[in-house]
Amino acid sequence: MQNQEFYLDVGSRIKRSRENKCLTQEALATLIDLSRATLANIESGRQKILLDKFVAISKALNVSIQDLLPSAHENITAEQINTKLSKNISDKELRNWIAQTIVSSQN
Amino acid sequence: MVRRKYIQNLVEGLLSNFSVSENNGPINVKEIAESMGVHVQSSDTKDNVSGFLYRDTNTGAVIGVNSDQNENRQRFTIAHELGHFLLHEGEPFFIDDNFFKINLRDNKSSKGSDTIEIEANYFAAELLMPRLILEKKLESIKNIDVINDEENSPLSEIATSLGVSKQALTYRLANLGYISL
User: Fold this and answer.
1) Residue range B47-58, pLDDT digits in tens
2) Same domain, B49 and B109
3) Are residue B85 and residue B168 in the same domain, yes or no?
């Protein structure tokens, strides 16, 4: 992923999360000790966020850091997904269908 | 609490990015989902399963749709799962089934699973049957007759033009206060 695209993606994830929690830019900026303008720049991908502020946002919004980051795009196999779902879905046929569908969607 | 006003505004914002008008036919939900970076994949399985939303850092978000169900139902499934994607981000997995629902819930979540499903359904209804489009389509109809179940009844025609079931449309019209059930 290109550098600029990466920050655009991170920014839009932060924005979506913030809006989902019904917070204004002003309110979130205050919580993490940034100016509203800086947060606006981060959300639009114009400014690169510092790691401590990134963690602070994740905490303030109660969203996992993973959810705020673009996918690492590692290949995942149907078997891995199947294992992951095995705790929650006992129906093997259903689990296989889900895993196969997810893998097909990656191509 | 079901965030109706929030969902209404969210969908309105989404639709404003697409050219949606009353003559355009059914809303292209797949295109909308894909424009947000969600992979939409259809594939057939047993008919009691409608679809799922799965997300992890390796795959990104994936909506799976059972291609064995009818076209309208598939569109509803995509809309419903997209609702989960946009509204319920803490949850890594949803599967929607005709009889039961399994969510691998993050226990930090503050919402009950009923609320979550109601929100996703409400999102889907807003997206597939936009209120402004309904308003325009209903202008020419004097009496909304929900009992008339002929193929060419005005309600059936609206349902067909939006790619939704007549039942879904009836429920939506009741929700918007056009009719009472």
Assistant:
1) 889 999 999 878
2) yes
3) no
CB contact under 8 A, B57 and A22: no
Cβ separation A106–B59 shorter than 8 A: yes
Span A53-63, mean pLDDT?
96
| A64-76 confidence digits (pLDDT tens) | 998 899 866 667 8
For residue B45, the enclosing domain spans: 4-128
Strand, coil or helix: B101: strand
What's this model's pTM, rounded to 2 decimal places?
0.72
Q: Determine how β-strand B60-66 pairs with β-strand B93-97.
A: unpaired
Residues B109, B143, single domain; the answer is no
Q: Suggest the residue from B10, B52, B113 to mutate for an interface test with chain A (most A CBs closer than 10 A).
A: B52
Do residues A105 and B40 make contact, with C-beta atoms less than 8 angstroms apart?
Answer: yes
Distance between CA A2 and CA A47 in Å, rounded?
15
